[in-house]
Amino acid sequence: MRFFSRLFLASLVFVSLLWCSHLLCSRSPQSQGDISVEAEDLPVTFDTLLHIQQLRKKTLRSFCGQTAKMTELPCNEQKASQVVSSILVNNKLQLLYCKVPATGVEGWEHQLETLEEKENITLQLPVPIHQHFGTPRMLSQYNLTSMETLLKSYTKVIFIREPFQRLISAYMHGLAGSLTFKEFVQHILHRGSSNASIEWKPLVSLCQPCLVHYDYIIMFGFLSSEVPHLMQRAGLLGDHQLPKFIDFKIHWTYDWLEEQMFSTLSRAQKKHLCHFFRFDFAAFHFPNSLLWDPTCLAGST
User: Fold this and answer.
1) Rounded to the nearest 10 degrees, what angle do helices 247-262 and 2-26 cross at?
2) What is the pLDDT of residue 9?
3) Residue 128: burial class (beta carbons within 10 Å; 0-12, 13-18, 19+)
4) The 87-90 sheet, strands edge to edge
5) pLDDT grade, residue 299 (50/70/90)?
6) What single DSSP character describes residue 89?
7) Residues 128-155: pLDDT tens digits?
8) Model-level pTM?
9) Under 8 Å CB-to-CB from 249, ≥6 apart: which residues?
10) Which residue, among 102, 43, 58, has the nearest Cα to 254 in the 3D structure?
11) What is the residue extent of each domain of the chain?
12) Where are the beta strands (DSSP E) in the chain?
């Protein structure tokens, strides 16, 4: 019965995506422009992207300055490897990025694979030392000295997404087994953040944004407008055309789905979820989140 319930929800999401696509395509160019502006002021210019990045990084710096989060790599190599275990390395393109499922990173990786196959990729700011680091894909596979060098030298990117949407995505992808969404949430809360799966573990714990000084903070729902500017500034785009990301349509559909899922939870579960993700909300200030409530966070930090 629960399987059919989830199948029904997935079907509704799919239909909603199709309807949303039809709605956007059927509007006049002027209306589409209005939607882009109204949808949380989508960044459509390079200058706007830089301004938004400055605001996001300012919020993150404020968070790091007010908490006791790790700001330096541990001297012990094994501990350092554990800290950066979610960060991947692309030596040819001189990039580091935190791999968090359902944040848009999958589409990003596909683009990197395509670019790696090109022979004429030339970076604007070449780092001569990159050729000495071999082929490991995980930062945790390097020794401590190399970790520190790569963290200082390479362009660093983090993809972020509203925590409750990450939970819903994990549930819709069948990671809850036969549990209802309410039971799934209770299971997560019972296990705690230290035993959380990568699919819903807080971003601050996975990506260590107070330790890793990310050059770009890219938010799910804005990939089509932010990723091209990012790649252009890094000297990676060239004549290569990026495909359209559909994250904006998914983000729009989740507005409805969130309300349905949220209504099944008890008040206590909502408060505990808010506490579970409190550092993510403080570090990134996700707009229009059902979980974000100042009274919910009172005394929790």
Assistant:
1) 140
2) 55
3) exposed
4) 87-90, 95-98, 155-160, 216-219
5) very low
6) E
7) 444 455 566 899 999 999 999 999 999 9
8) 0.79
9) 17, 20, 21, 24
10) 102
11) 45-297
12) 87-90, 95-98, 155-160, 216-219
